[in-house]
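Hello Y.,

Per our agreement to keep a running log of every chain we model this quarter, I'm adding this entry. I've kept the format consistent with earlier entries: sequence first, then predicted structure.
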Amino acid sequence: MLDYHRRKDCSLRKLIQIFRNQWDISGDVYAVNEYTFLLVGFNYDGNGADTFFWAGAANRPGPQGFIIPNEYGKTNILDRYHNKDFTLTLPDRKKITEIKWLAVYDLNNQNNFGDVYIPEEFDPPRVQNGGTFSKRSHNVSSSAIEIVDSKTIRIKDFTYDGKGKRTFFWTGVGAQPSSRGSKIPDEMGYLDPIRKYDKETITLELPGDKTIFDIDWISIYDLADSENYGHLLIADNLNVPPSLVKITPYEFSLPNCRQLHKNLQVSWEVFGPQITLQLSGQVEQSDYMSFGLSGSESSSQMIGADVVVAYIDDIRGYSIDYNITSLAPCVQVLGQNKGVCRDDMVGGLDSFQLNTYSRKDGINTITFRRTLISSDPGDKEIRLDRSNYVVWAFGQLDSNNEPAFHNFYPKSDILIDFNTTEPVNDCFSFTKHADNPVQTWERVRIWEPTVRTFNAYLGPSGGLKGYQGITGHVSSGLAWYINGFMIPELYLKRGLTYVFKVRGGNNPHSPEHYHPLVITDEPRGGYDRLSDAKQSEIRVLAGVEFTRRGRPKPTAAGPLCLSRYPANYDRRLDDNFPSFKKFNRSLTTACSYDEPATLEITPNITWPDTVYYNSFTHANMGWKMHIVDSYNNLRNSAVSQLTHNNKLGLILFIGYLLLQTMRQCIA
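Predicted structure for the entry above:
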């Protein structure tokens, strides 16, 4: 449902009941802004012959008026509605203050089935200026703080030095901020202690069904010292728009619940020697959720962690025991599996027993159990005599239903006491707003005939704007950089010889940084991880030779050259970079002094028109190579596109030249 909660003492959105009559019309109407209505719980039986949403400026509904397009922007005859929430926008930039009523009206019979009158004193809701943060300590400051709607706060030029102990965006009721409050997820949905900010504009969303009318203040608050670093008091009776986020109440059958992220919860119950766990996440159908015990006894650490990976496919749910020895997909290193590997692949047992699974309203809920002390010596004990450091993550599954590099994960320590005397519950309802499409970084194409040498090395794959956005594939965390660009599309001419100078790591002991370059007709790569049957379906064009026993052996394993993040950088902020160029400038590159491996290729007529460069060991690190017969068509296409996109610029440039010539003649 859409959020439409409000306090009794506020005038938010000028609520009016739609008339109920023989046509069973009912629902509530709010104003979102001066152009848009929000209808909540709207019902209509659909029996009208020529019925539309109808508005006008006459004293009462009648034939003098105009059609309002439905929630899809169409002017179709209305169908049946049952308890539906949606918005209607007046056409042609008409304003709500210019009409006197909104009706469900049958034009053929001139029959008014139900209407809402607009009060004469109606004042459309709008974004309100809430003031600025009070300046107390830790450099907390901001410019204007805007109350965008009943759940959304935009903080401009926010600054905080990041040096607090356990500091959060914090909210509550009362005259002044205090420890009796609750967390607000940060701009990325995390509930961790907040990071350093330097004049950044961020947007916060109040959690669950909480609205601006339920709170008195927002604070930058340190729970460790119970200290308020700066705050904003919320004014009464703010006339702001309703929030249009979808609220899905959380449902769990276990007594304890911990909110790990805006979109992930874990709940649990200990009974005898067993613990039952439930993961609930607002994730995509193909996503996984992961939770488990840290690899360290003194902090939350992924390396060495013992975790469950839970997901639902088209048939059933899964809760699979995993062991993390390296932050890389599971690969064979000298005959042993290393990386993020299932326990049964490293000589252990799958200790989790699946109980139930469901997907409803975009929420995956998976319940499973295990013993506190597992019979698998590789599993960690869930302690009841003290708190446990835990880790979690969620992200996309790869084509083999294995967890790819996670999109969401914590950066701070997380402690959970699984043996509390009283139930613990800080969970709140899931919220989801309309997704804005991610603008990917620029797609680079290298097609110059004179470029015959390609320098290939490794770098981070970026966030949703990087490898994932460009290719549509999940990421392994690293990507090939060719001649300084992330996964450019390469155009190679048949009959010409090209050289790849490969620096992807040549240490087969490293599960993370051993990436021989391989060229095949298959887009994902990771040839060495595939089964014999799948390998037999792929045509290897370069980078692999086969032993007498038919086993693949890479031929282009060069020394490591790697672009890295700066120290203490949070890679979850990758998408804050507007372009790859700016992202790349933030990296530092370290290369071995050894000579690179050389992969020489000469595409011929047997090569497909599209092939792919990738890693021999890991999937999803490279991209396309176009094999062409001539560069002429590419030149013509490029010139045509340039002319199309820059016609106005060319006209202005020519005009500038003419003006300069005229000035010279006059002089």
